[in-house]
């Protein structure tokens, strides 16, 4: 299925499910749209057909899922990504960090989980605060560059969408915050794909 707009995706999947004896669906797409995962979750809940999302938008981990859904996604959750990042931070003794988020859905849970990881640890983490960015009110990125410069930590945990990450890194590069001495960890369930974020 190459057309992943919601209507076409639902119609095509329903046509396939109603015309063939199917025991399950393995779904891969090259989008980064969480809408694909939501549609597949809905279809699984409504039809009781197991669906496995293996790449692209179908693999963006949804929590919680629809009641009755048997939709399995092969991706890592935000919590799993943070656990790995904190292992790396601990390994290199990088204990001082700041959190940078946008208003992307789930950002409050992200911040809360960072607090859980740092508060429940015996490591002396130095959490230097949370910067929440509103990118819609700053089309030129002037305020964004100023806000990024005000963050005192060299290590930054960024939670946002892929499109927002491109804007944040563009502003960070223009502000001189992406060179040697700055370490960014980008966290999110929709950042996958073969394309790289801008340098």
UniProtKB/TrEMBL annotation:
It comes from the Eukaryota. Keywords: Membrane, Transmembrane, Transmembrane helix. The keyword Transmembrane applies. It is found in: Membrane. It holds the Pfam family ANF_receptor. This is NMDE4 protein. The gene is Grin2d. One of its GO terms (cellular component) is membrane. It comes from Cochlearius cochlearius. Residues 33-187 form the Receptor ligand binding region domain.
């Amino acid at each position: 299925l190459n057309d992943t707009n919601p209507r076409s995706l639902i119609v095509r999947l329903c046509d396939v499910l109603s015309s063939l004896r199917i025991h399950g669906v393995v779904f891969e797409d090259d989008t980064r749209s969480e809408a694909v995962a939501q549609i597949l979750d809905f279809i699984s809940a409504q039809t009781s057909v197991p669906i496995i999302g293996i790449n692209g938008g179908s693999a963006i981990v949804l929590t919680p899922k629809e009641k009755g859904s048997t939709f399995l996604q092969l991706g890592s959750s935000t919590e799993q990504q943070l656990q790995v990042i904190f292992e790396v931070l601990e390994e290199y003794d990088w204990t001082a960090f700041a959190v940078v988020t946008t208003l992307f859905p789930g950002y409050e849970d992200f911040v809360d989980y960072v607090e859980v990881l740092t508060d429940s640890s015996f490591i002396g983490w130095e959490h230097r605060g949370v910067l929440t960015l509103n990118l819609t009110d700053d089309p030129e990125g002037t305020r964004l560059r100023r806000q990024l410069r005000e963050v005192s930590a060299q290590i930054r945990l960024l939670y946002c969408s892929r499109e927002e990450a491109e804007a944040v890194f563009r502003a960070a590069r223009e502000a001189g915050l992406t060179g040697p001495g700055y370490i960014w960890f980008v966290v999110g369930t929709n950042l996958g794909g073969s394309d790289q974020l801008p340098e």
